[in-house]
DNA sequence: CACACAAATGCAACTAGTTGCATAATGCTA
DNA sequence: TAGCATTATGCAACTAGTTGCATTTGTGTG
């Protein structure tokens, strides 16, 4: 259901194609939602079938047609209903934590590789956040309420990543 | 794949039934992995079929048989392979963040309910952590290396939850 | 010129997880 | 004594997400 809602949100802001949505998921929305192109195309088609989206096919010279989706009143209603209902708790799945539960059998070198790899991932994430911040929220003082809200989500993302990194550094220091 | 690995870990520590594993997922492993009984039973049977687990059926007077699973050498090998390979990055899916991206159309009362509900969930999580800490790690000084590792995961869980709560309080304060 | 990449879409087969229902005994509570 | 929780298992149908492959044309790189 949540992918649907995210698609409705991005398309109510501005109609677009599956490919457009994919690009938004890769840049401005990267810390909010990620999905493969296959999933996006399939879901958009299902939503059109369910009457939540309209689809206008724009032929292009010598290239595959662009299918531009826009939200319908029914889609708008579904989005409003989703906004109104608080989200349920999400399931906990922490494969890394599981490895810590079998510490005795987790070879030291594998462990060090794992933690180094995680560290890279976390640093890469911080860089991605910085890029988004620079592009969209370069002046936090000048933000309107509507811009300020998504900016808060970026801040939380950064803070969570920093919490991870601090913990990681402690663990790595202890490992020597 | 990760559910498999988590099942291998819990069963190599001590053989048990699907029901046993479910109980462990509800208590000591609650911040590591959660899965429904259906998923667990199905996966255990598939793993037995793949030769990763042995199954011994223990009949009980007037109740359904207990099926006690234990890990085989093949299962052990699969677990070792999983431990050796660093985990890939996990997909980002933050439905709450998505709601912040449509702030203009997110009614204030729905928003307040959402944040209040989240706050309860986070506080409940902290309480669950405290219960686990009390039961398993009451004396952090006296922990062996093998106990110390899972204790670290609990600490990170707590710190992440606190990061969330601090952020939430800021957002709620700003909302007035 | 060959090769890779970007723009733009899609099918098919798979794995992972959810939801609803069902069974069957025991023990506890109103 | 009726109803509910616990112990213990499972099927069937569903939704969600992944992986591998395939098409067509332009544009840039070595």
From TrEMBL, chains A, B:
Transmembrane segments: none annotated. It comes from the Bacteria. Residues 92-173 form the Transcription regulator PadR C-terminal domain. This is Transcriptional regulator, PadR family. Residues 7-80 form the Transcription regulator PadR N-terminal domain. Pfam families: PadR, Vir_act_alpha_C.
